[in-house]
Amino acid sequence: MFNRIPPVVKNLIIINIIMFVATLAIGDFMYEKLALFYFESPLFRPYQLLTHMFMHGNFVHILFNMYTLYMFGAVLENVWGGKKFLLYYFVTGIGAALLHSGVLYLQASGLESAVTAGNMIAYEHLRILYSTPTVGASGAIYGLLLAYGMLFPNNVMGLVFPPVMMKAKYFVLIFGAIELLLGLTGRNSGVAHFAHLGGMIFGFFLILYWKKHNRMYY
Length: 218
Description:
Layout: H1 7-26, H2 28-34, H3 48-51, H4 59-80, H5 82-116, H6 120-131, H7 138-151, E1 156-158, E2 165-167, H8 168-185, H9 193-212
């Protein structure tokens, strides 16, 4: 089965697995250098906009992302070809990082104002914001989900939990709405919900651009 996976998806999975094993072996050094930090953090480096996509926090994180990459990425690579698929993958992944960083900027600006007013609790939150890494291919994965929903809107998909069937377009809308709700309410704050939305938003506009210029399939 692994031999039937198209080459770009296969190599992305292999690279992610290698990076995950290296992170388990090396530890914090990998996170400090390759995870994505807020752009005003002393730990930030521009290349992290790309490298964070190959880092994962734990086994469940990488398992979910790689399984979804296999499920949707293989279909999209077969439709688009390797070069177009890889371009889409990186545009959505980097776009996710940019939107996430923009949200962090808004949060940091509010905290800095509070710190200036003498709020020491805000200082602690600001310190955490500067030192917290963001990892994972989830932004690009959500971009793939969006693309599948746009290209095959009426394909029926099944969820394991809850055990329901629905068309891909509704699946995408529900997941997008959940991420927006969780991002705005701050629930499940350890997850970069706006990064997920960023992948979907950048993917949406890239697909619209390709459709407008008749470049969807070549």
